[in-house]
Protein backbone atom coordinates (compact mmCIF):
# COMPACT_ATOMS: atom_id res chain seq x y z
CA UNK A 1 0.00 0.00 0.00
CA UNK A 2 1.43 3.39 -1.02
CA UNK A 3 1.90 6.44 1.16
CA UNK A 4 -1.13 8.27 -0.23
CA UNK A 5 -3.32 5.18 0.16
CA UNK A 6 -2.32 4.95 3.81
CA UNK A 7 -2.77 8.68 4.33
CA UNK A 8 -6.16 9.03 2.68
CA UNK A 9 -7.51 5.52 3.12
CA UNK A 10 -8.12 3.06 0.34
CA UNK A 11 -11.63 3.23 -1.04
CA UNK A 12 -13.51 0.73 -3.08
CA UNK A 13 -14.85 1.72 -6.48
CA UNK A 14 -18.53 2.67 -6.43
CA UNK A 15 -20.94 3.90 -9.07
CA UNK A 16 -21.18 7.50 -7.91
CA UNK A 17 -24.12 8.25 -10.22
CA UNK A 18 -26.15 5.51 -8.52
CA UNK A 19 -25.15 6.81 -5.09
CA UNK A 20 -26.33 10.32 -6.02
CA UNK A 21 -29.61 8.90 -7.35
CA UNK A 22 -30.01 7.17 -3.98
CA UNK A 23 -29.59 10.47 -2.11
CA UNK A 24 -25.87 10.82 -1.53
CA UNK A 25 -24.74 14.30 -0.49
CA UNK A 26 -22.17 16.03 -2.67
CA UNK A 27 -19.72 18.02 -0.56
CA UNK A 28 -17.65 20.55 -2.50
CA UNK A 29 -14.64 21.52 -0.37
CA UNK A 30 -13.32 24.35 -2.56
CA UNK A 31 -13.30 27.99 -1.49
CA UNK A 32 -16.55 29.98 -1.78
CA UNK A 33 -15.02 31.91 -4.70
CA UNK A 34 -14.23 28.70 -6.57
CA UNK A 35 -17.70 27.35 -5.79
CA UNK A 36 -19.36 30.50 -7.15
CA UNK A 37 -17.48 30.13 -10.42
CA UNK A 38 -19.21 26.79 -11.02
CA UNK A 39 -20.45 23.79 -9.08
CA UNK A 40 -22.72 20.76 -9.15
CA UNK A 41 -26.34 21.79 -8.51
CA UNK A 42 -27.37 20.83 -4.98
CA UNK A 43 -23.80 20.47 -3.71
CA UNK A 44 -22.97 21.73 -0.22
CA UNK A 45 -19.95 24.03 -0.04
CA UNK A 46 -17.74 23.72 3.02
CA UNK A 47 -14.09 24.64 2.39
CA UNK A 48 -11.75 21.89 3.56
CA UNK A 49 -10.06 24.36 5.95
CA UNK A 50 -13.40 24.84 7.76
CA UNK A 51 -14.62 21.25 7.62
CA UNK A 52 -13.72 20.30 11.22
CA UNK A 53 -15.73 23.25 12.54
CA UNK A 54 -18.68 22.61 10.20
CA UNK A 55 -19.17 18.85 10.71
CA UNK A 56 -22.51 19.57 12.39
CA UNK A 57 -23.91 20.56 8.97
CA UNK A 58 -23.56 16.95 7.76
CA UNK A 59 -25.33 13.76 8.83
CA UNK A 60 -23.18 10.77 9.70
CA UNK A 61 -25.76 8.32 8.33
CA UNK A 62 -25.78 9.86 4.84
CA UNK A 63 -23.50 8.81 2.00
CA UNK A 64 -21.15 11.69 1.20
CA UNK A 65 -19.18 12.26 -2.00
CA UNK A 66 -16.45 14.86 -1.69
CA UNK A 67 -15.15 16.93 -4.61
CA UNK A 68 -12.85 19.88 -5.27
CA UNK A 69 -10.82 21.21 -8.21
CA UNK A 70 -8.39 18.32 -8.67
CA UNK A 71 -9.12 15.64 -6.08
CA UNK A 72 -6.45 16.50 -3.50
CA UNK A 73 -8.61 18.55 -1.11
CA UNK A 74 -11.51 16.15 -1.54
CA UNK A 75 -9.19 13.29 -0.49
CA UNK A 76 -8.24 15.30 2.60
CA UNK A 77 -11.92 15.96 3.32
CA UNK A 78 -12.74 12.25 2.98
CA UNK A 79 -10.03 11.46 5.52
CA UNK A 80 -11.35 14.10 7.95
CA UNK A 81 -14.90 12.76 7.64
CA UNK A 82 -13.84 9.13 8.09
CA UNK A 83 -11.84 10.04 11.21
CA UNK A 84 -14.90 11.90 12.54
CA UNK A 85 -17.02 8.77 12.25
CA UNK A 86 -18.82 9.26 8.95
CA UNK A 87 -19.44 5.74 7.71
CA UNK A 88 -19.69 6.02 3.94
CA UNK A 89 -17.59 8.71 2.26
CA UNK A 90 -16.20 8.67 -1.28
CA UNK A 91 -13.69 10.94 -2.97
CA UNK A 92 -15.35 12.07 -6.19
CA UNK A 93 -12.22 13.96 -7.27
CA UNK A 94 -12.60 16.94 -9.55
CA UNK A 95 -16.05 18.52 -9.39
CA UNK A 96 -16.15 18.82 -13.19
CA UNK A 97 -15.31 15.15 -13.69
CA UNK A 98 -17.83 14.16 -11.03
CA UNK A 99 -20.48 16.37 -12.63
CA UNK A 100 -19.94 14.69 -15.99
CA UNK A 101 -19.98 11.27 -14.35
CA UNK A 102 -23.31 11.73 -12.53
CA UNK A 103 -25.40 13.43 -15.18
Automatic annotation (TrEMBL):
A single Gene Ontology MF term assigned here is: thiosulfate-cyanide sulfurtransferase activity
InterPro entries assigned: GlpE_sulfurtransferase, Rhodanese-like_dom, Rhodanese-like_dom_sf, Thiosulphate_STrfase_CS
Q: Where is the Rhodanese domain?
A: 20-103
Q: Gene3D superfamilies from the xrefs? A: Rhodanese-like domain
> PANTHER family this protein is in?
FAD-DEPENDENT OXIDOREDUCTASE (PTHR43031), PYRIDINE NUCLEOTIDE-DISULPHIDE OXIDOREDUCTASE (PTHR43031:SF1)
What is the name attached to this protein's record? Answer: Rhodanese-related sulfurtransferase
| Keywords (A to Z) from UniProt | Transferase
Question: What residue range is the signal peptide?
Answer: none
Known CDD domains for this protein? RHOD
Amino acid sequence: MGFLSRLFGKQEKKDLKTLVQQGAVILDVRTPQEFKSGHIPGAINIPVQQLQQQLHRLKKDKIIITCCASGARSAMARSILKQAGFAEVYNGGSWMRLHNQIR
